[in-house]
C-alpha cells in the first residue's frame, strides 16, 4: 500500500504492488511472499480485481453491493461482489463495449452499447436480447419515467428505444453533425447532449423539442489557453436541478448554471488531453475531473485545487463509490486501481477495516531514509565542527535538521574523533569478555512459587540450546519468559502438590531427580543468603557411571511404583481408621418428621416393599400387576400386544369412593321401599 500526500491530503493506493500471475501454484505464491517484501505487504482488497489486458469502464450498482467493469481482450464484463470481496461472474461478449448502464438496483438488468452498432441486454441469468441501431453509437442514457433509451453517436439523430413497448420511437433531429456524450438530469429529467462542434443541446423528453443551446467551445477559450483546433464536448454530468459540468477535448472543465449561458467557472487541466470523466463530491463541494493522465479534485465555488493523483498508466474511466472516500479507476493496464482518501469520507461498510488501518499508519509514520545522505541536527554539526556550512549547498534543510552527504559525514567524523578506532577496539574487547562470562555458571534468581519446576525448565533450556547449536535449529520459547505463564510462578494457587496421588503415581522417577534439584536449590538459597559468588561446578561423572545410573533408574522404576502404591494403601487405611474413630465418638440424635395432612403413616415396610419391587424385572412386575387386577394385557388382531392399566388411588380417594358407594346403596334402598308402598296402594308415611 503506497501513501502519497498533496496539499496535506493523504491518498492511499490500495492496489499498489506487484500482482502474482494466476498460473502460479499456491506453493510458489507462498514462497514468493516469503522472499519479496512488496508482495507480502500488498493489500488485495477485492480478489482478482483486474482485466486480462485493458479495462475501459467501471460502475457501481445502486445498492452498492456490486462493482461492474468491462474491458478486453477478449471483450468481457466482470461483476465483483463487495460482500464476498471476490468475483461473482464473468461474461464474454462478441464485440468491445463502448459504454454500459446498470438499470436495476443490482446486476439483474444491464444494457451494453458495443462497437458494431449492437445494443445487448443482459438479465440475471446472462444474455437476454440483442438489437442494432442505424449508426455507430458513442453514448446513451436511460429515461426512467418513460423507459426510453437515448442513443447518440456518429449521426445528427438521437435514437430512442422504448423498453416497455420493445420498439424504436421517432428519433430527435439535432443540428449537430455528430454527438459524443449525453446525460439526463435526475431531478427534472432534462436530456442534454454534447456535440462535436463544442455545443450542448438540451431537450425536453415530454415535448421532444429543444429548449436550450450552450456554446461551450467559445466559453472554454481564455487568455492563458492555447488552442490548436475547435474543442468538442468529451464529458457531461448534471449535479442537482440547476448545475451542469462540461468537459472539452482540449482539457477544460466548465461549470454552468442552467439559468445562464455563461460558465460559473472554467478549470484547465493544462495537459491538452480530453476530459474522460466528471464526478461530484457533495460533502466537500468538490468536482473530480479526470483526463487520461491526471485526476484533479477542486472546489466548485472557487476552483482552488484540493488534491490530484497521477496513476502510472493512462486513465479510461473514474468511479466514485457513493457516500465514501473510495475512488476506482479503469486503466490502460490489467489492474484496476483503488484509492482511499479518508478526507473525502469514511471507508465503505464492506471494508471498514481501512479506517483503523489508516489511523494506525497516521499514528506511526515511517521515517524516510536515504542511502546516500545522513540526517544530522544542529547539535551534531557543532560536535563535528561543521556549523559554518549551514546555509551552503552542502546541507539541505529538512524538518529540525539537515541532510548531508554520507561521505562528507564520515570524513568529518574521522577528523573530529581520531581515536574512534581505539574506542571501537575497546568495545570489541568488552564484548568478548562478556561472552566468556556468559559461559560461566551464574547465580540464577528463582521465583517464589514452583521453584523446582523453574529449575527444571532452566536445565532443559540449557540442554536444548546445546542441541540446537549442534543441529543449527531455532531455540524454542522459554516458559519463564513468557507472559502467558507468568502467574504460574507468582500465584501460590498454582503450586504443584507433590504429595498428591496423581503426582506420585504418574511420576515414579521424579523423586530421584527432585532430590538432585532440591540439593541444588539448597546451594542456591545458601548463596543468595550469604551473598557470595557461586563457585564453579564440580566435574561431571564419567560416561560409564552415567550409563550405569540410567540402567539402575530403568530397573528401579517398578520398585518405585510398588513403594508408592504401598504407601498410598497405608495412608488410606489410616484415613479409614480415623473416620471410624470419629463416627464412634459422635453421638446419634433422634430426628422427627411431620406427616402431611390427609395421609396415614403405615410403616417402613412399604418402603422396603417398594425397594424389593424395583429390584425385580419388568416382566415380574407386570405379572404382579395382572394378579392385583390393575393391569390387563391382551392380543390384538394385528398381532401386537395391548396393555390397559388402572392408576393406584391414594387412601383419601379410596375412603371418599367408599362413602359415595354407601350413599348410593342407601338411596337405592329408600327408592325400593317407596315403590313397595305404592304397589300396595297406600299412602303411608315412611317415617313415623
TrEMBL record:
Biased composition (Basic and acidic residues): 648-663
Name the record gives this protein: Nucleolar protein 10
InterPro entries (UniProt xref): Beta-prop_NOL10_N, NOL10/Enp2, NOL10_2nd, NUC153, WD40/YVTN_repeat-like_dom_sf, WD40_repeat_dom_sf
Tree of life domain: Eukaryota
Repeat is among the record's keywords: yes
Pfam family name, one: NUC153
Gene it is expressed from: Nol10
Domain Nucleolar protein 10-like N-terminal: 1-364
